[in-house]
Amino acid sequence: MLADRVLAGDPRAMARAISLIEDEDPKSADLVRAIFPRTGRAYLIGVTGPPGAGKSTLVDRLVAEIRRRPVLDTREASARGSSEREGRGPQRGSRDGVPEASEASGGGAPRALEDAPSASGVEEARLRRPVLDTREGHSPSASGVEEARLRRPVLDTREGHSPSASGVGVGPHADKKMSVGVIAVDPTSPFSGGAVLGDRLRMQAHAADEDVFIRSMATRGHLGGLARATGDAALVLDAAGKDLIIIETVGVGQDEVDIIRTADVSVVTLVPGTGDEVQALKAGIMEIADIFVVNKADREGADRLVSAVEANLALQAYGADEWRPPIVKTIATTGQGVPELVDAIWRFRERSKNNEATRRRTRSEYRLRELVSQRFMDHLERDVLAADELSGLVDRIAAREIDPYTAAATLLRRAGVNAVNVHDNASGRNGH
Hints:
40% of the residues lie in helices and 10% in strands. The chain is of the alpha/beta class and 432 residues long. The protein has two domains: 40-105 and 180-351, Rossmann fold (3-Layer(aba) Sandwich), CATH 3.40.50.300; 362-429, no CATH class. Strands 5-4-6-1-7-8-9 form a seven-stranded parallel sheet, with helices on both faces.
C-alpha cells in the first residue's frame, strides 16, 4: 500500500504520493486520510522573498548547514551567547555585517563548525586538511603537513567515548542528524501552463543524501506564493519522518502570504540593489516575517537595506516578551551568515513553543476553509453548472443585463445554497 511505503520513508513512494496530490487524483484524499494521524511532528520553515533574492541558493546552503548539526535541541541555540539578538542588526566582529570566517566563538554568533558538534570528528579533519599542490615545481611543504596535523580534532578516547565520523564525544545524539524535506514552488506560465521547475537543479549537491528529499512544484495558477498542493505535500514529508521541511515560495507580496498560514516560521529574504528598498518593504513583507535575511550582503546597498528594515521594525510596538524579527546578513553563494540564520530559526522555535499549538490550530482552520472552498467550487463547476449556463451569465454581466452579485446568487441557488444577497453575506462575514 502506498501509504505504508510513505510511512516507511520510501522516497519513490513519497514522490508518487505527491504526484497524485498535484494531479488531484481521487486516490490522493484517501492517501492523506491514511497518513494524517502520523503527521504533526515536523517543523516547517518557509523561505520567501522577491525573485532574484537568491532563495534557492540560500535553501541549498540552509540544508547543508542543518545536515551538519545533530538532532535539534533548541535549548542550545537559545543559550548561546550570540551578539545578534532579536532585531539588533549585524553581528560584532564581522566585516560589513557578514561574519568573518575566523570569528571567535566568544565574539559574535558562533561559527558553523564551532556551533555544530556533528561537524567535528574524523570527517571534519579530512575536509579541513589543506590541499597539497603536487604539480611540477610544487612540493608539499612541511608547514602545510604540520598545519593539517594540528588542525585535526583531538579524539576523546576515554571509556564510553568512541570516535566516529560524525562527531566525537558530543552527546547521545551526535550520530543522529536531522532529516530534511524541501518543497520548492516555481511559477507557472499563464500562457502555456508550463513551469521550468529549476530549483532542483540548484540543489544537486544533496542528490546522494538519502535523508534529504527535494521536490519542485508548479503553482498551476494558484495565487498566494504556494502551489495548491503544497500543504498536502508537506503532510507526506512529515509522515515520512522528515524532521524539518523547508518550503520555498515563488515570491512575496500582498497577495502572496500563504506561507504564514503554512509554515511554523517565515524567513523573508531581501536583496540590495533593487533600486527602491522602501518600496520593497511595502508589499506586506513586514507582516510576514519572523526572520529577515539580507542576502547578497557583499553588494552595495546592503547596509541601506538593513537600515530600512530596522526603521520599519522601529515603527512596530513589541512587548517585552514578544519576538522581534532579527535581521541576518548572508552571502548564500559562500555560506557566510547561514549558521547564524539557523541559530535564529532555533531561537524562534524555542521562543514560540508556547504559541505552537495556537499557530497550528490557525493553520488547520485555514486549511479546512481552503479545502471546503476548493471542493465546493469543483462541485459547482463539475456537477451543477452547465458550461453554456456559466458562459451565458458571463455574457449577460458583460452586457450589463445583470449584476455580478445577482448572477452569483443564481449560481449558489443552483448549488443548493440560499444566498439571496451575496453582497450582504460577504459584508457580514468580513465584519463591515
